[in-house]
Amino acid sequence: MSLQYRPVPDDDVDEFRRLLTYAFSPTDTHEPLDEDEELPPPAQPGARRGIYDGDELLCTGTHHWFTLDVRGSKHDVPGLSAVSTPPWNRRRGLVRRLLHESLTEYRDRESWFSVLWPFEHPFYASFGWATTTDYGEISVTPDALDFVDDVHPDGSFVELDADRWADLEAVYREANDHTLAMYRTEEWWRKRVFQGWEDEPYVAGVEREVEGEETLVGYLVYRFDEDGDDRTLTVQETCAVDHDAYVELLRFCRYHDSQVGTVELYGRPDTDPFDLVTDPRDVSIELRPGPMVRLVDVERALGVLDYPDDATGSVTLAVDDDLATWNDDAFRLTVEDGRATCEPVGELPADEDATLGVGALSQLAVGYRSAGRLREIGRLSADDGTVEALDALFPTEEVVLREGF
After folding, report:
1. What is the pLDDT of residue 198?
2. CB burial class (10 A; 0-12, 13-18, 19+) of residue 384?
3. Is 243 exposed, middle or buried (0-12, 13-18, 19+ CB in 10 A)?
4. What's the burial of 166, exposed, middle or buried (CB within 10 Å: 0-12/13-18/19+)?
5. Dihedral sign computed on CA atoms, order 272, 371, 80, 109
6. Where are the domains of the chain?
7. Class of domain 3-111
8. CA distance 401 to 299
9. Which helix or strand (DSSP H or E) is residue 219 part of?
10. What stretches of 290-329 adopt beta strand conformation (E)?
11. What share of the chain is helix, strand, coil (3-state, %, to 5)?
12. What's the distance, Cα to Cα, between the start and end of the chain in Å?
């Protein structure tokens, strides 16, 4: 058996889709595309990859070439999705091979970070990815949002279509100034926001007059879900430039009281409406772990990160990474006035060391977890001085990757 990692050609797209359907929607019947039929729009973005044995596709994956904010600067951060292997090909190390080859490809492209949404967090944690975002699932009845009835409207509602994607991007950029915020492309807006896998979602917004012009200040993407006689307004994404615009989006949900019994929203943990509604017990919020992050190349990633302007320090990190072996080493990180150098040293000095896995280092690097917290939960071994130095170099950040892929 001679295995190859390579791009999936157009002739194999149906087989690629068949394997994905079996892996993630086994109760659905795979419908092959007609010869002149295009892929559904949400399936079009991304670069398909596979592990092949000759002409047989054994394992699948898709790379999305994202640009994300990492500590205040733009970075190429590939997103990995659609990883699947059918049962007849499992327990052969194919996914491990796909993940290793993917990291190698990212490294060749000089992309030093990667992200993914896991089907199981422990599975990808075993390969070096680590949780990087928490999000809240908020459930509330329209009547519980009646506080908006006493708030004077600040704007007007508008329906939005894909041709206004640039206006939505402007709102998104203003409202998302945190680490892992995406710089969305027109293709992403048109094919992944305004298009759904089965039905097109609804997209509505709030406009108000700004310097004499009606300007979009908030939007939401939503659908209706039915379970018997129960109907839910499921809001997939909300985005507002300020609190008043967010209240107007809640007003929009409130005005569906004759159509739905429940409103469900997904968002950052800090956008909960406990302090807005009359009775906070009318709101249910479930905090859930979200996507995961991984350093592709420790030396290069730590060397290009932005550090606090006044940050100065030096620390040696012993990194455990059995998937990307180029990371399985000791690295000397030196920062002077916010400028960093990082290089492998091979051995730790006896009097100063920190030991951690690449997943924990990834959380530290993007600001999701502090060094103190990582040591507290047993994912970092270091003395007090090293922890203090790491926390000065890597202050925690608000880290939110909200896009599904």
Report:
1. 75
2. exposed
3. exposed
4. exposed
5. positive
6. 3-111, 135-289, 293-393
7. alpha beta
8. 24
9. strand 213-227
10. 292-295, 313-320
11. 30, 35, 35
12. 32
Query: Which residues in 170-206 are b (16+ Cβ under 10 Å) and which e?
Result: ebbbebbebbbbbebbeebbbbbbbbbeeeebbbebb
Domain 135-289 falls under CATH 3.40.630.30: yes
Q: Which is nearest to 49 in space by CA: 41, 59, 39?
A: 59
DSSP state letters, 157-216? EEE--GGGHHHHHHHHHHH--SBT-B---HHHIIIIIS--SSSPPEEEEEEEEETTEEEE
Distance CA 19, CA 304 (A): 38
DSSP state string for 91-150: SSSHHHHHHHHHHHHHHHTT--EEEE--SSHHHHHTTT-EE--EEEEEEE-GGGGGGGGG
**pLDDT tens per residue across span 53-91:** 999 999 999 999 999 999 999 999 999 999 999 999 999
The residue behind tokens 């359907």 is: 21
Structure tokens at 36: 């002149």
CA of 218: how far to CAs of 109, 177, 180, in Å?
35, 15, 20
pLDDT at 1 over 70: no
Give the rounded percent of residues in the chain with a pLDDT score beyond 70.
Answer: 97
* CB within 8 Å of 361: residues ≥ 6 apart: 295, 298, 317, 319
Indicate if the pLDDT at residue 348 is higher than 60.
no
Domain 293-393 in this protein, CATH class = alpha beta
- Residue 136 contacts residue 287 (beta carbons within 8 Å): yes
Residues 335, 307: contact at Cβ < 8 Å? Answer: yes
For residue 351, pLDDT over 80 is answered with no
Lowest mean pLDDT among 199-203, 211-215, 268-272: 268-272
- Which contiguous run of DSSP H or E holds residue 263? strand 262-267
293-393: same fold as 3-111? Answer: no
What's the sign of the alpha-carbon dihedral 332, 335, 336, 341? positive
> For position 391, what pLDDT does the model report?
97
Mean pLDDT across 303-316: 94
Q: Give the tokens for residue 323.
A: 């998937």
**How much is the average pLDDT of 40-51?**
89
What predicted TM-score, i.e. pTM, was given to this entire model?
0.92
- Rounded CA gap, 167 and 42, in Å? 21
β-sheet bridge partners, residue 313: 335
Write down the pLDDT at residue 25: 86
